Amino acid sequence: MKKLNLLLTIVLIALLVLLLYGATQSGPRIVFVDVNRITQEYTKMVELNRRYSADVSYYQSKLDEMSKELEEMRNRGASQAELERKQAEILARKQQYEQILQSEYEPKMKQILEEIAQKIDKYAKMMGYDYILNKAALVYGDDAYDITNQLIGFLNAQ
């Protein structure tokens, strides 16, 4: 009987220790963000998109002028060879403009995305988060754990 009481006492103490330890230990701090909103509302990304759109409009206006010239050539009765040459020129210019835009904006976009990732890492450490997940990868997430607005504020304040 004494052995049974001793065994029960040990089991109860072990359970009590486990319960107390479990109560003081919290699980990992997990939150999520809407990455699309972050990239749409981050000031540097907004500015980059504005400049990109302006450049696209500029190059499109140049292509429109060339297309207008092609139409005028058709109306004047230019030869098929001249029309084909002008079409080839327009196509070559379009490809050139696309390459210019890509070579200028792709590195800038990559740099901003890397900057966002670094700042998210800094924010997570500062706030004590163990994980920040992308909302797009979640099946469900309670809005209480969505820190998108706070993170956008942090990014834009930096």
UniProtKB/TrEMBL annotation:
It comes from the Bacteria. GO terms for biological process: protein stabilization. GO terms for molecular function: unfolded protein binding. Residues 56-100 form a coiled coil. Pfam families: OmpH. Keywords: Coiled coil, Signal. GO terms for cellular component: cytosol. Signal peptide: none annotated. SMART domains: OmpH. InterPro entries: Chaperone_Skp, Skp_dom_sf. Belongs to the Skp family. This is Outer membrane chaperone Skp (OmpH). It comes from Pseudothermotoga thermarum DSM 5069.
